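Example 4.3 (complexes with small molecules)
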Amino acid sequence: MKKYFRDIFQGIWSVLIGMKVTFLHLFTPAVTIQYPDVKLKLPERARNRLYVNMDDCIGCFQCDIACPVDCFAIETAKALPTEDLGTTSTGQKKKLWVTKFDIDIAKCCYCGLCVYPCPTECIKMTDVYEFSEFDRHQLIYNYATLTPAEIADVKVRTGEYEKEQAVKKAAAATAAAQAKAASAAAPGTAPAAAKPAMAPPATAQATATVAPGAPKEAPPPTSPTEPSL
Ligand code: SF4
Ligand code: SF4
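Answer. The structure with iron/sulfur cluster bound is encoded below.
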């Protein structure tokens, strides 16, 4: 009987010892938050999801070159001489259509190396960190602002222009080659005489200059005539 009550007391005592830490935390401030209802404020320079302002992108590929894990897929097309794409907010003239600008954020290691070389400062890391997806393909972000129809149109126009330029260049090269061949084969067109190595010495008479008003040089003396007897 005595043992029975001792076991009950030991059980209650063990529970009280185990709950001691729990009781102490009832009176200390909480260090956890009720996420997602409550969110921590991230540091000012936190590196999370990338953002690209396509209005300022000039399609220079600097971000693509800097990326160590090949997150970028960029395609551009040259604007025609008659097209004005405007300027960026930093004053640079835009000369290329950016027809594709994809970033595979699933590959991204958040190193920030793509941000620094951008000449127009249009790519940056934001503090957005809630972008999980069930399908990793959903993590490929497409930033290009052109519609598929506009992209197709740009490609057609650029392709036609490049073909025209190639034809013109080929025609100019052919014409130049024909002109060269014709001038080489034309009869009577002797090759240009080689210049003498040295100019012939000028005569003293030819080179002498007479100052205005100066007395004329006396004629050369003639031999005296023989006196008549
Ligand atoms: S942060 Fe780093 S890994 Fe991510 S896209 Fe930029 S360069 Fe590539
Ligand atoms: S470096 Fe900047 S301007 Fe150049 S392609 Fe990348 S985002 Fe565009």
